[in-house]
């Protein structure tokens, strides 16, 4: 159980709320506001309960320099709230001291300071000095030992916002008490980032459906031709060990560069595998239909390219058509692939890609640990 913001008296208190406003921006416009929407229930609760709300976040990778391209002013304009062009300094302190109850201020990008990503206690203390209470509602950065996520909890009474509470509650269902049959669908490009998750999930699940470029590694160790497809040589030994597990279901056909499907044993040495084939989509869909719990992270192919999106599309249809299962979906690419799809109440979309993976490895995240009762 996490210490909840609901259990703390926030009236007239300065509340430092760590959000994640690291949203995609194109030509000066926010192209996906889901992370902003996700933190709104906590912001609205604090407004209603007369807190003085100081929002902090990062945007992109400015690498410790004040780069206007990564300014959070665009987010403040979108939210129609006051913006301060620094997260520290006398001007910031003075403005915060003059705040009224229910007022909201957004401070400038934390990562303009190199200390943020170093989990620097002195920097964390300066941030903490701005407020009376710290609330973490940025699940997507909870796997990072950063000043505004980890070190800051040493200097202020700390608790979780509603989004963080919900993320931990939903993801814990996977590890603690899953409904069965329990299916995991793992895709994406790199097996190295997901190997620990696969190992931990194999202890819990009934079947693991593998797609995306990471399946190439399993093809390779099974003796199939993978041509010029993406392979991670350094993890092939690990992939071979994992493949002994009978719960793994691999694609039986593939789509290569010429966009024609072929059986897995027909791949050519000059080809690149870019999607699962229609037979695999059907095979995977049969497992998905019977599932009572589904966790999905990673697309089935290079969905962003025309001709290689069918695998991901068919799996998405099968997943979202299962109205009886508890469904948890995470990972930036997977969410993008599902952007225009209608999702039922049985579907939970996690805001954290890397954080979700680290949690499913069985780790207590650095941003979550200090908030446990």
Q: Determine the mean pLDDT.
A: 95
Radius of gyration: 22 Å
- CA distance, first residue to last residue: 6 Å
What is the N-to-C succession of helices and strands? EEEHEHEHEHEEHEHEHHEEEEHEHEHEH
Q: Strand pairing plus helix content: what structural class?
A: alpha/beta
Q: Which sheet architecture does the biggest sheet show?
A: 6 strands, parallel
Fraction of residues in helices? Answer: 25-40%
Give the number of domains. 2
Low-confidence stretches: none
What is the fourth-level CATH superfamily of the largest domain?
Answer: Phosphoglycerate kinase, N-terminal domain
Query: Which range does the strand content fall in?
Result: 15-25%
- The beta-strand count equals 17
CATH topology of the largest domain: Rossmann fold
Taken from the alpha-carbon principal axes, the silhouette is elongated
Order the strands across the largest sheet as they lie in space.
5-6-4-1-7-8
- What is the tally of helical segments? 12
- CATH hierarchy, class of the largest domain: Alpha Beta
- CATH architecture annotation name of the largest domain: 3-Layer(aba) Sandwich
């Amino acid at each position: 159980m996490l210490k909840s913001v609901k259990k703390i008296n926030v009236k007239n208190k300065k509340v430092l709320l760590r959000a994640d406003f690291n949203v995609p921006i194109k030509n000066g416009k926010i192209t996906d506001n889901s992370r902003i929407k996700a933190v709104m229930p906590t912001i609205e609760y604090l407004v209603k309960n007369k807190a003085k709300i100081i929002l902090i976040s990062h945007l992109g990778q400015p690498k410790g320099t004040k780069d206007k391209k990564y300014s959070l002013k665009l987010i403040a304009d979108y939210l129609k709230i006051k913006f301060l062009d620094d997260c520290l300094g006398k001007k910031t302190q003075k403005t915060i001291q003059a705040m009224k109850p229910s007022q909201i201020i957004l401070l400038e990008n934390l990562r303009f300071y190199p200390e943020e990503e170093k989990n620097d206690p002195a920097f964390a203390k300066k941030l903490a000095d701005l407020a009376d209470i710290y609330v973490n509602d940025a699940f997507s950065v909870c796997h990072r030992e950063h000043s505004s996520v980890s070190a800051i909890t040493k200097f202020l009474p700390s608790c979780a916002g509603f989004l963080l509470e919900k993320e931990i509650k939903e993801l814990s269902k996977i590890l603690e008490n899953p409904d069965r049959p329990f299916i995991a669908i793992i895709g994406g490009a790199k097996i190295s980032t997901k190997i620990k998750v696969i190992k931990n999930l194999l202890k819990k699940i009934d079947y693991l459906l593998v797609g995306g470029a990471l399946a190439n590694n399993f093809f390779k160790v099974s003796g199939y031709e993978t041509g010029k497809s993406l392979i991670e040589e350094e993890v092939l030994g690990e992939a071979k060990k994992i493949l002994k597990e009978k719960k793994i279901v691999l694609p039986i056909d593939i789509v290569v560069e010429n966009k024609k499907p072929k059986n897995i044993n027909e791949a050519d040495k000059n080809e690149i595998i870019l999607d699962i084939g229609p037979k695999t989509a059907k095979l995977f869909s049969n497992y998905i239909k019977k599932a009572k719990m589904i966790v999905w992270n990673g697309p089935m192919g290079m969905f962003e390219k025309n001709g290689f999106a069918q695998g991901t599309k068919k799996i998405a249809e099968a997943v979202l058509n299962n109205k009886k299962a508890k469904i948890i979906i995470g990972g930036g690419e997977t969410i993008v692939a599902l952007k225009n799809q209608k999702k039922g109440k049985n579907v939970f979309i996690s805001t954290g890609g890397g954080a979700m993976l680290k949690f499913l490895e069985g780790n207590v995240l650095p941003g979550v640990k200090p908030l446990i009762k």
